[in-house]
Structures are given as structure tokens and as C-alpha cells.
Amino acid sequence: QWKQLENLYFREKKFAVEVHDPRRISVSRRTFGQSGLVVQTWYANTSLIKSIWVMAISQHQFYLDRKQSKAKIPSARSLDDIAMDLTEMGTPKVSKLVTLEAKNQLIMASNGSLISSGSQDSEVSEEQKKEKIMELKKKEKLLQEKLLQKVEELKKICLREAELTGKMPKEYPLSAGEEPPQVRRRVGTAFKLDDNLLPSEEDPTLQDLESNFIIHQKLVEAAKKLANEPDLCKNVKKKRKQEYADAVKKLQEIENSINEYRIKCGKKPTQKSTLALPGERIP
């Protein structure tokens, strides 16, 4: 019966009718947990399914109109007269529905429902509407918080890019009337070598090896700083840790070369990398 109808809807090639049956107890996602729902489903091509849905909506609207007017058809009327009245009343409703469907953005070409068509008998209680509104407000709040978090991350990335390039990227998010911040470009490297740090060896080969060791030691420090930066994605963090491990390994290889040369020349070996980077040796 029409009074038991909960919803009529279609999606792609599926047409479904939801009716309220007190003899059946089930849970429906579309009615927010209301019990006693039975869903009848049919499948066909999209154009046929949509036509059936439009006719079903029109028939339901006809039922609502007759219910509201409470008009009774006299028994003395002929079947031809009744058929004529049904035709005259049904045709405007179909055209009205088609016009409404064209204007309503909720009814897409491949889906629609009794609720989205604007039916007066959607039978969704005020309490259910309030629950749905509260649920949507919670989702909206969570999305706004996530959006603010992403905006702050984007600002940090844009500021770092501006420090490297000297120009603020156009993607930097600005509020209404806000001016972009002034950023000075970083000049040179953050790791500079002091001339006094370079060893002075009489042997030019050993001098080159010692200088190479000090340079790579600074590279290891730079790689470590990059690897420990916060707010890095998983792939970038993994890549930088690998680069840091490679730099430490290279530093130890250079020290091994120095020690081999020092032993060859009759000098004592050193342990510079162990002293400079305690606990950082890579097996």
C-alpha cells in the first residue's frame, strides 16, 4: 500500500522500492536505522529504469493528491470518465516532475530517489532530520579542521620554497586583505669550513685525504639535519635517512683510507669518525 512506502529510488541500472513492513525487522542505512523495512529491487537498462522511476513518482504523487483532497469518485461514473480524469491529472504531474528533475541538482542522470524528487510523503520524521543535520555538522567541522591543518602545512612549504628561491610562490594561501610575508633568500650554505680547521700535513697526499675527511664530515652533519627535519612525508624521510647512512659510510671509508696510508707511512691510525659521530657507525 502507498501508506507503507518509505522511498522510491534508482541508481544506474537499479530501481528499488522501500516499504515499511512491521512483520519484518531489519536495518536500513537510508532511513538511519529504522526497523521494519523491506527493499524490493529490479534491474534493467538505465533509460528503462529511469522511466519506471518517473512513472512511480507520478503515481505516488497522484495518490498524495487524492489523499489530500479526500475526493471520492461517484460510483455512477463510467470507466471512460474515470480513465479521462486519470489521464488529465497524471499528464501535468509527469511534465511537472520532468521540469523539477531538470532543475533539481540532486537528481542526476544516473540516480534519483523519492526524497530527492521533492515528494511530500517522504515520511522522514523531524527527529531523523535533526540527527542527519547533526551528523552533517560534525562532518563539516572535521573537514574544516583538516582544511586548516593542510593550509598551515602549505604555508610552511611555501615559506621554505621562498627561502630557497627568494620568491614567494603564488600557491601561498592568503586571507582577505592579507599581504604575503616578506622572506629573505638564504645565501650560501649553512655549513662553512674554517680555514683553521684544515690540517697542515707535510705529505700532500695525506693533506688531501684529511681535507676530504673534514668536508665529508660536514656533509654528514648536513644530511643528519635534513633527515631529522619534522613534517616530512614517509617516502622523503626514508630517502633522507638512506642518504645520511650513505654519507656516514662514505666518511668511514675515507677514514679507512687515511689509516691505511698512515700505517703505510709508519704513523698511528686515527678514529676521527667514531669521535665525531658516536653511535652512528653503520655495520
Give the low-pLDDT segments. 102-109, 119-123
Radius of gyration: 38 Å
Roughly how many Å apart are the termini? Answer: 78 Å
SS-based class: alpha+beta
What best-fitting shape do the alpha-carbon axes yield? elongated
> Which strand order does the major sheet show?
3-2-1-4
Report the sheet-strand fraction: 5-15%
Overall pLDDT metric: 76
Layout of helices and strands:
Layout: E1 5-11, E2 14-20, E3 37-43, H1 46-69, H2 79-103, E4 111-113, H3 126-165, H4 204-227, H5 234-264, H6 272-276
Molecular structure report:
With 283 residues, the protein is an alpha+beta fold. Among the domains are: 2-24 and 35-69, no CATH class; 204-265. The protein is 53% helix and 8% strand. It has six helices and four strands. The protein has helices at 46-69, 79-103, 126-165, 204-227, 234-264, 272-276; strands spanning 5-11, 14-20, 37-43, 111-113. The protein has a four-stranded antiparallel β-sheet. The radius of gyration is 38 Å and the shape is elongated.
